[in-house]
Amino acid sequence: MGFNATRSINVELGHGNHFIGNGFRSLLLSDFSHNYFYLKLNTRIWKFQYQNIFAELAPVSVNSIPSDVLLPKKYTATHYLAFLPNPKFEVGLFETVVFGREKFFELQYLNPIILYRAVEHSLGSPDNVMLGLNLKWNFIKSFSVYGQLLLDEFKLSELRSGTGWWANKIAVQAGLKYMNVLSIDHLDMQVEYNTARPYTYTHRDTLSVGTNISVANYSHFSQPLAHPLGANFRETILLLRYRPMPKLQFSGRVLLTEWGDDFPGQNWGGNVLTPHNSREQDYGNFTGQGKKTNITAAYLDIQYEFFHNFFADLNIMRRHTTLKIQCVQALFYEIAQ
Fold it and tell me: Where are the beta strands (DSSP E) in 100-154?
């Protein structure tokens, strides 16, 4: 349900999810996770667009606790301020805070002004605050570049030292779109690269019910709120879309992914639900550490519209996964198995 409170402010109340970005993936906020209850405010003033999202989330799904028990609650407050000086360029500043309160909502986070870090610091810094940048530039006809940068935690001196400090939690996206390839109408191509360092999106607190699951991590219903893999991955995506006629559309994509999974009883930073204080080491961390998993997937989607809003779809997928042992400890585990 939505309405215009003023000429510049739109209010929306509903149950769903959101997507911020211009790519196939979003490292800031994606629509991958389960639906959630939210209040959204959209404000447009001159060349600025400002979005506030206040949402109630669940740190676990119904599969994690006994039946007929109310799921624990956590909350998030998100700000996205975009500046669009012209139709070809967009730069946006993203900010979100995820917090768990078992008995109440933290009213201080209802402040609609961007930059929550000062508010979170005044509370004792118990919550998970992340900052991000979103960019898009249509630099020449038919070409568009875009990207995202997310900072969960980082320390510049540790980043420069190159020692693999665990708390340099960063995610990066870079992409290129080519519309009407070789002047062929409705033939579009896209190339995208995404990566997130180990322990990005994670937090330290755990549920009071005794499970080893963080509350203020960036997830909902046991699913990541950003990339489906969570963290500790590199991914390259190739997409091709073609619509030869108004009612027929073809789309294909290839995903090349390297992801660091966890061995049983270990935490190498790929699972955003696991508290980061159970990490394996403070230094020497790198993207893809742990149980190295290479995933190659190819998809082909064909869609035909018989009449208005009545579609037939054909979906074909091929997926191949390989594992590669990376460390002596992991090798010993495999031998024992």
Answer: 128-140, 143-153
Whether the Cβ atoms of residue 54 and residue 110 lie closer than 8 Å to each other: yes
Q: Where are the domains of the chain?
A: 2-336
More confident residue, 334 or 308: 308
Q: How confident is the model at residue 68 (pLDDT cuts 50, 70, 90)?
A: confident
| ∠ CA 293-168-228, rounded to 5° | 40
The Cα 275–Cα 216 span in angstroms is 9
How many angstroms separate the Cα of 164 from the Cα of each of 232, 233, 245, 293, 303? Answer: 13, 15, 51, 20, 46
Identify whether the C-beta of residue 52 lies closer than 8 Å to the C-beta of residue 41. yes
Chain-centre distance for alpha carbon 327: 28
Number of Cβ within a 10 Å radius of residue 311: 11
Instruction: With beta carbons less than 8 A apart as the criterion, state whether 268 and 262 touch.
Output: yes
3-state secondary structure of 120: helix
Give residues with Cβ within 8 angstroms of 124, minimum separation 6.
none
CATH architecture, domain defined by 2-336: Beta Barrel (2.40)
For 95-123, b/e burial (b = at least 16 CB within 10 A) is bbbbbbeeeeebeebeeeeeebeebbeee
**Residue 186 CB neighbour total at 10 angstroms:** 14
